[in-house]
Fold this protein.
Amino acid sequence: FCYDLDFPRSSGIRKGFILRRCAEILVLLSLQYCLSQQWTLPILRTFDRPLNQYSTLQNIERLLRLALPNHLLNG
């Protein structure tokens, strides 16, 4: 069968593995924070008035500029 009921287990907690995963999480969270500060917030600050006061092309351009950082940060 493809499904196995008995999985191999280690005798103890692998501290190195847990520390490495925690370090990876911290690095990725700090990268996400830096990207949002350096990339997304300056774009959002350019929205100085409501979207209905911009032309359609300006709205499309601004929303497309937000699409890539939003995809990378939340994807």
Residues 15-74 form one domain. The two ends are 35 Å apart (CA to CA). The mean pLDDT is 87.
